[in-house]
Design a protein that fits this description.
The complex is a heterodimer of chains A (1121) and B (374). Chain A is α+β, with helices and mostly antiparallel strands and 1121 residues long. In chain A, the strands form eight sheets. In chain A, strands 1-2-3-4-8-7 form a six-stranded antiparallel beta barrel. In chain A, strands 16-18-19-15-20 form a five-stranded parallel sheet, with helices on one face. Chain A has a three-stranded antiparallel sheet with strand order 9-11-12, covered by helices on one side. Chain A starts with 9 loop residues before the first strand and ends in a 7-residue tail after the last helix. Chain B is an all-alpha fold and 374 residues long. Chain B has 18 helices and no strands. In chain B, helix 4 packs across helix 6, helix 6 packs across helix 7 and helix 15 packs parallel to helix 17. Classes of the chains: A alpha+beta (1121), B mainly alpha (374). At the A-B interface, helix 4 and helix 13 of A face helix 10, helix 11 and helix 16 of B.
């Protein structure tokens, strides 16, 4: 164990032949071969001089100390160490004479005494760096710069220092910063290193480069000293020694809370980190190669520190509960890294755009020298002037110029709430020219405006797990299940801000999740009575109720009327996929309204999916519903469009101008519209119910051709099921319930006009509709009792009058007579129709009324004079029997048609009876399949005779179109009634057959209730294709091709769509269909009374399908049916 | 001539790399390991043959004889069964303080020089010879270097009293210990040296455990649990590293090697979940765990930073250099042998680092060796 000199001890040494006395002041260090002390001496002038003294005292030599004297046991060992000690002294002395470095190496004397040798270095003129504590970064950099230059000079003289540390150099700042190396016995010749004669190097652990620690001599180079300089700089700045972390390629340093960086250009942080990274790297190859490179880096840093003007960062802290958005953060980062100059964060209000921008700035603060957060107000130009330039005292006018210089690629500029119209701020283009990174947050969609170096990132809702976490964090609710929370949050479609608000509400009111859910299920407005919550939005703290906050976020009142109308329209169209074209189509929007739509989209009020489909966010929907009250009245165009579409579909069979494509579009429109309506929402219920009531009113007012009956193919049918289900699943208000029962009642009322060919089915229907009629009547009446007294009478009248009106409108009433009579007797004032109807229903008549009836009957043809009596029915049976028994049925019918003694209408009626007799006994499609060719010929002939009778000049085809409008029947004279009735019969036969078949197939194959109602989807191609083929073939025999063609096209297309989905799709199955269609089109072309424009269409169809057949033929398919 | 380690490094380059074909990749690796790294018994026999200058048919018998001649109790090297396992069953000695001691006793018994002892360690035992920070190994080095017998080394070890000395603070010379000891010619001098350098010669794992904690903490941000949140549990970290699901609430189930083709060097003491938290564990377990966690952190960082600080023109080699340098710094701080490519465990990590997606490669290997039972 070495025995060190003690503090205060005096030693006498012979230096350059002169005896000098030193007092030991401090032990400095304990090296392998030496012990270092600080010492002082009084000079001849009585002044105290300071020295660093190194005593040659190897720890591993056999030495003992007697008082001051070192006693060496082994003289040879002593000699060896003395030589080594002197040799390093000689190097120092040698360098003292080198011009570039000599002045930076302290004077050292080789002295002897106490049985050993000493190196004595004068340190009067400066302080050892380890004793200096700088207070400014500028001073530190200044010192390290000089140190680097000195070490550089050492390198240029062929030496490495290899033990640079604060204890080993002196610093003086007067007049300029200067440095003197002392204790330089570690200096190592580069030439010797390269020659391989150096086996190891001494070093200080805290400052030494890894290659020294690993003793990897071959790697020791200039960069070894550069590492040590970096370590000294690091210690000065970070106030701690380097660790293995700081040497990593992934090292990063937190300089934010370091007071050395206060009030100086923030750019310096990046530069300092860069210096750390390129001096402290484990691998020498990642460091600066020469001190010149390090000098340049430090000089740049120093210059930056000295720059007075710089921009001050002002990024707020992350939002308290900021969560997730990792993908978006990465996307923004990647965009900027790939060279984009501006990124727009686009999204709906309250989705967290600003929070995301702030989070990005905080996360990547180290990637930027400066990050500025500005909240957009009126213009960019004014906004820019808000940027705070530190120490700027110039004119405001010049500030812009200075800013332009200061904003560089290492600056991040965030412009928040840039919710302007695209071309609103003329300075935007100029701003984008700046060489800086700009992050906008905006509800406005800028995606279509800028290309190349400007990108837009759309943010949508957070993932469910993130929303749950957000909700739980704020509400402190740990008891509710994830599923329940997701359900609650789905009411606001996971809208970030709304989720926060709901969580705050729950925390503030202490209500349970279930209570909160039931409250807001009918809209956020239900929360008006709830506690106010305190929240922060766009930097402001507000305390309001949730609806107030949402209203503040989206101020509907500020919008102009066009924009309001667009919002109303989109609200009603929310169940559909609406793009610009369809929007225009549904709303008949003018250019101004389309512009308003565009504006709202840009401004974020209206969302687009895939840049195409428009929709409203639930929160906006909520506001639109509550504040703009969209309804069928104030969105008339949409209402009209829907009615039109329904009319097209319901009456497709008779509207020959509706082609298959249009039909499919209409069906698609209606299916989507009705299927998507979520009736759990009160607003939606109101819209739908009001619309159905409106349809009923229109029907009553003779404004509509629509029949909202319950036909299986009707677009209404699924709706009825939906609303009926509501009365069982939701606690509805009495008036809502009444309206639903009333609609259902009405739909069943209209069922009484349906007649089926199939007797069994007809019987079933009779029973069903009677039960339903009574059921909904009773339900309506009972719910009326729960309604407000003031409207009870009105509602009762409405129910009674509707039933009596419909019952009275039927030509052949099939209502339960007793029931109807009772209704009439209970509320006779609700009867609105005339006497004939009253008579037909068997309602009690007054004497005057009876007389009037008699007069009417006197003018009617005999057949109808007394209505249908049992005798009439018997006579009809006999007539039908005679027809069936006749040998030549065609001749039988022909004679009837030519019977000039009979009125045409009577003739037509009788022919109708013949047809009924002919078709009446057959069931479904098998009926057709059993027909012989002769039978078909008979039917065709009969129909031709009938047609030639009916389609005389007197009865235009247009009349035919009105056959479904039963009201018209009342006002027409009886003759017309009969003609129309016969015509209707002909079409009904065809239509009913088709429908019966389709319904049969549906029932057979699937649960009709649950299936997508478009039948073609559910048909198993393999089973039904052939049947249909034969069936259609048969139809050709009895109907005009032009009637059948649309059906065939529809059926074929349905099959084709369905078949394509099958794995074993084979188009050859369609060859026969194509052939059939082609033939039909050809027949239709040659039909009588076909307008020219349809002829062209038929020709096109024929050609199209012939081509398809050719294609298949060319492929050499073997066709088998 | 290239060192054994740099030859191994070269071999990494020679391996085909199929990032998407881990079965193939694994086979390549497995085959490489099993052909390149001979069994301990074979390697030991080669060392003995070289020392004897002829082929020794019965190496165990030869060892018995040399022990007898050197007055060494053969049981200090290995039991009868262990010898049998080495020479017949292809088994390796475990990496532990005691087995390292056995190797040194063996070196004394065989009369090996320093170079021959280094060869015994690097080629047969597959670890770095002479840990100069371990005062016992320093004494072995001193004695072997001077041709002193094992009994002398034992006596010197008994004489060391590291608790009763007043050590020097000259702690900066640790790497120079070997060259320092080379110049020591007397026992007393050596003992004095050891006393003075007890800080450097300390064998406790305190710093290693601290570093393990450090790299665990640094690794957690890369661990993503099933719900997408960051998870700071040893189980999750372990699963994230290995890509293997560990059963048991806190990962208490030990992963079993389904595939036993990897050498014992890798399989024995392969880190398990508990190694991430155990304060008391063997030196080898701790070193392996530290390498495992450090590697995960380094690889994850490479991926997260998209090789930002890596030379793009020479990506894999540069990444490997960075990895090796940093890991060695960590091991140096932990007072543990540096990365040694002669050790299959170290080699496996080095190999993975050389691939385009090191973590993926590593997990691919784990998939094969641990693969689920189903």
């Amino acid at each position: 164990m070495r025995k060190k000199l003690e503090i205060g001890q005096q030693i006498t040494l012979i230096c350059d032949g002169t005896e000098k006395q030193f007092t030991i002041k401090k032990l400095i260090g304990d090296g392998a071969t030496c012990i270092a002390y600080e010492a002082s001496r009084i000079n001849s002038n009585g002044m105290t001089e300071h020295y660093r003294i190194k005593e040659c005292y190897p720890y591993d030599a056999d030495i003992s100390r007697n008082e001051l004297e070192l006693i060496w046991v082994d003289e040879a060992e002593k000699k060896k160490y003395f030589e080594r000690f002197k040799s390093s002294y000689q190097i120092t002395n040698q360098l003292k004479y080198e011009e570039t470095i000599g002045n930076n190496i302290t004077n050292a004397m080789l002295c002897e005494g106490n049985g050993t040798v000493y190196s004595v270095m004068e340190i009067n003129h400066a302080n050892v760096y380890s004793n200096i504590k700088e207070t400014s970064l500028e001073k530190i950099l200044d010192t390290i710069l000089v140190l680097t230059k000195v070490v550089g000079n050492l390198h240029k003289n062929g030496y490495l220092h290899l033990d640079i540390k604060p204890d080993n150099f002196l610093v003086s700042y007067e007049p300029n910063t200067n440095i003197w190396l002392f204790d330089v016995d570690s200096l190592t010749s580069i030439a010797e290193l390269k020659a391989g004669s150096i086996k190891s190097t001494p070093y200080s652990f805290s400052y030494a480069a890894p290659e020294q620690k690993f003793n990897e001599i071959s790697k020791i180079n200039f960069s070894t000293d550069i590492f040590a300089i970096g370590a000294v700089l690091f210690e000065r700045i970070m106030h701690t020694c380097i660790s293995v972390d700081d040497m990593s390629v992934f090292a990063d340093w937190n300089l934010d809370n370091n007071s050395l960086f206060d009030d100086i250009n923030p750019k310096i942080k990046r530069l300092i980190k860069n210096i750390f990274r390129k001096t402290l790297a484990v691998s020498p190859k990642r460091r600066y190669k020469t001190t010149d490179e390090l000098v340049a880096a430090i000089e740049l840093a120093l210059k930056t520190v000295q720059e007075k003007l710089f921009i001050v960062s002002n990024i707020p802290a992350n939002a308290a509960h900021f969560i997730g958005r990792e993908t978006e953060l990465a996307a923004i980062h990647n965009e900027f890294k790939s060279g984009q100059k501006a990124v727009f964060i686009h999204g709906f209000g309250g989705m967290g755009k600003s929070s995301l921008a702030v989070a990005y700035a905080n996360k990547h603060k180290d990637d930027y020298d400066t990050a500025i957060f500005l909240k957009y107000k009126d213009s960019i130009k004014e906004l820019i002037t808000e940027i705070n330039i530190q120490n700027y005292e110039g004119l405001e006018f010049d500030k812009n110029k200075v800013l332009h210089k200061l904003l560089d690629k290492n600056t991040l500029l965030i412009i928040d709430n840039f919710d302007v119209e695209i071309d609103q701020d003329e300075y935007l283009d100029e701003l984008l020219q700046l060489n800086t990174n700009i992050l906008f947050t905006s509800r406005t969609d800028f995606s279509s405006v800028y290309g190349e170096d400007v990108t837009q990132i759309d943010i949508s809702k957070l993932a469910d797990n993130e929303l749950i976490k957000l909700f739980r964090n704020i509400s402190c609710d740990n008891s509710s299940s994830d599923k329940d929370i997701v359900e609650l949050l789905s009411l606001v479609e996971g809208h970030t801000y709304a989720v926060e608000l709901l969580a705050l509400q729950m925390a503030a009111s202490g209500c349970s999740l279930k209570e909160l859910y039931s409250k807001i299920a009918n809209g956020l407005d239900e929360l008006y009575g709830f506690e106010k919550v305190r929240t922060r939005k766009d930097g402001r703290i507000v305390k309001r109720t949730i609806p107030e906050i949402i209203r503040a976020l989206f101020n509907v009142a500020k919008l102009n009327e066009e924009r309001k109308q667009v919002l109303r329209n989109l609200y009603l169209l929310k169940f559909l996929y609406v793009d610009k074209d369809t929007y225009r189509k549904y709303t008949k929007a003018t250019t101004t309204e389309i512009n308003a739509l565009n504006d709202l989209t840009e401004l974020g009020w209206v969302r687009t999916t895939n840049n195409h489909w428009y929709s409203l966010h639930p929160l906006v929907e909520e506001l639109v519903s509550n504040d703009l009250h969209p309804s069928m009245e104030n969105c008339e165009s949409i209402y009209n469009y829907i009615q039109h579409e329904i009319r097209m579909c319901e009456c497709f069979d008779i509207y020959s101008e509706l082609d298959e494509h249009s039909y499919n579009n209409s069906i698609s429109f209606l299916c989507t519209f009705f299927n998507n309506i979520d009736l759990h929402e009160k607003n939606n219920r109101n819209i739908l119910i009001n619309w159905l009531l409106q349809t009923i009113r229109d029907y009553d007012d003779e404004n509509s051709e629509l029949c909202i009956g319950r036909s299986e193919d009707s677009v209404y049918t699924p709706l009825y099921r939906k609303i009926e289900l509501l009365t069982q699943t939701i606690d509805l208000e009495p008036i809502e319930k009444f309206n639903i029962y009333y609609i259902l009642l009405y739909s069943w009322l209209l069922e009484f006009q349906i007649t089926y060919l199939d007797i069994e089915q007809q019987n079933h229907l009779n029973e069903l509709r009677e039960n339903k009629l009574k059921k909904y009547f009773n339900l309506s009446i009972s719910v009326i009792q729960q309604c407000d007294n003031s409207i009870t009478e009105e509602l009762l009248d409405k129910v009674y009058s509707s039933i009596l009106f419909i019952a009275g409108s039927m030509i052949m009433p099939s209502f339960p007579k007793e029931f109807i009579v009772n209704l009439y007797l209970e509320r006779p004032h609700t009867w609105q129709l005339g006497l004939i109807a009253k008579n037909r229903l068997g309602l009690p008549l007054s004497v005057e009324e009876q007389k009037e009836i008699d007069d009417v009957n006197a003018n009617l043809p005999d057949v109808f004079k007394e209505g249908y009596t049992d005798e009439d029915i018997e006579a009809e049976k006999e007539f039908k029997s005679a027809f069936l028994m006749s040998k030549d049925k065609v001749q039988f019918v022909r004679e009837l048609s030519e019977d000039s003694e009979c009125a045409p209408v009577t003739r037509a009626s009788l022919i109708g009876d013949c047809k009924e007799a002919f078709f009446g006994d057959f069931q479904f499609y098998r009926w057709f399949l059993s027909f012989s060719d002769e039978d078909w010929k008979t039917i065709q002939d009969i129909l031709n005779i009938e047609e030639s009778l009916l389609f005389s000049d007197t009865y235009e085809q247009s009349e035919f179109y009105n056959i479904h409008d039963h009201n018209d029947l009342i006002s027409q004279n009886s003759v017309e009634q009969c003609v129309v009735s016969v015509m209707r019969q002909q079409y009904d036969i065809f239509e009913n057959i088709i429908n019966n078949i389709l319904i049969y197939i549906k029932i057979e194959l699937t649960d009709y209730v649950n299936a997508d109602w478009h039948w073609s989807r559910i048909i198993d191609l393999n089973n039904w294709q052939r049947i249909h083929y034969r069936l259609i073939r048969s139809f050709i025999n009895i109907n005009k091709a032009s009637f059948i063609l649309p059906y065939i096209l529809k059926i074929n297309s349905g099959f084709y769509e369905y078949a394509k989905l099958q794995s074993d799709f084979d188009e050859k199955l369609f060859f026969n269909n194509y052939k059939l269609i082609s033939e039909l089109a050809q027949s239709a072309y040659f039909e009588k009374n076909v307008p020219e424009k349809y002829k062209l269409e038929y020709m096109d169809i024929e050609v199209e399908y012939e081509c398809k057949m050719d294609e298949l033929s060319e492929k050499n398919f073997i066709l088998k049916v | 001539m290239k060192s054994y380690t740099s030859q191994q490094e070269d071999k990494i380059w020679g391996l085909p790399i199929y990032p998407d074909m881990y079965e193939t990749d694994y086979e390549t690796i497995s085959s490489f390991i099993n052909t390149t790294f001979r069994s301990f018994g074979e390697s030991l026999a080669a060392v003995i043959n070289k020392k004897a200058g002829k082929v020794i048919d019965e190496p165990k018998k030869y060892i018995e004889e040399t022990c007898k001649a050197a007055n060494i109790d053969i049981s200090e090297i290995a039991s009868r069964n262990t010898f049998k396992n080495w020479f017949s069953a292809g088994m390796r000695p475990k990496k532990s303080e005691s087995s390292r001691k056995s190797m040194f006793v063996l070196a004394f018994a065989l009369g090996l020089s320093v170079e021959e002892t280094e060869e015994l360690f690097s080629k047969a035992y597959l670890d770095r010879a002479f840990n100069h920070r371990d005062y016992k190994e320093l004494i072995y080095y001193y004695c072997i270097n001077r041709g002193m017998p094992y009994s002398h080394a034992k006596r010197l070890i008994e004489m060391v009293n590291i608790d009763d000395s007043n050590p020097t603070d000259a702690t900066v010379y640790t790497i120079m210990i070997k060259s320092d000891v080379d110049t020591i010619s007397e026992d007393g001098e050596l003992l004095k040296y050891i006393e003075n350098h007890r800080h450097n010669l300390s064998l406790n794992n305190k710093r290693a455990l601290e570093l393990l904690e450090t790299y665990k903490e640094k690794s957690y941000p890369f661990v993503e649990s099933k719900d997408g949140m960051h998870d700071k549990s040893a189980k999750s970290l372990f699963e994230a590293i290995t890509g293997q699901e560990v059963k048991g609430k806190k990962g208490t189930t030990t992963l079993k090697f389904k595939d036993r083709s990897l050498p014992d060097e890798i399989r024995i003491n392969f880190p398990q979940v508990h190694n991430l938290t155990d304060k008391e564990q063997s030196y080898e377990e701790l070193r392996k765990t530290l390498i495992l966690v450090f590697s995960y952190w380094f690889w994850s960082n490479l991926a997260a930073n998209n090789y930002e600080y890596i030379d793009k023109d020479n990506k894999l080699a540069d990444a490997f250099d960075g990895y090796k340098d940093e890991l060695n710094m960590v091991l140096l701080e932990a007072n543990m042998p540096l990365l040694y490519l002669g050790n299959p465990y170290d080699w496996m990590f080095a190999y993975c680092t050389y691939t385009e997606d090191p973590l993926y490669t590593f997990q691919g290997i784990m998939d094969v060796v641990f693969g689920s039972e189903e």
